[in-house]
Amino acid sequence: MSNPLDIFVFNLFSTLATYLMFGLFTVGASLIIFKVAYFNIVLSAYKSFLSSTNN
């Protein structure tokens, strides 16, 4: 019915799709973490800047 080449190509494509989805998920999660960390750094710097100008 199906030759081994078709099965090999199907397995290869499914593995590539899995790696691609995992890579996109990892990149998205790291971008969210980076945005949150960057926002916290900017917020703390802004607070220290405000406290230094008030005193």
- The proportion of residues forming helix, as a percent range, comes to over 70%
Number of strands: 0
Q: Low-confidence parts, pLDDT < 50 over ≥5 residues?
A: none
The end-to-end distance, rounded to whole angstroms, is: 82 Å
Cα shape: rod-shaped
Overall pLDDT score: 92
Instruction: Report the sheet with the most strands, covering strand number, pairing sense and barrel closure.
Output: none
Strand content: under 5%
What is the H/E order?
H
Write structural notes for this entry.
The structure is a single chain. The chain has 55 residues and is mainly alpha-helical. The chain has one domain.
Task: Please tag this protein with its features.
55 residues; mainly alpha; 0% strand; rod-shaped
Q: Could you provide a short overview of the structure?
A:
The protein is mainly alpha-helical and 55 residues long. Helix content is 93%, strand content 0%.
Furnish the topology, listing elements before pairings:
Blueprint: H1 4-54
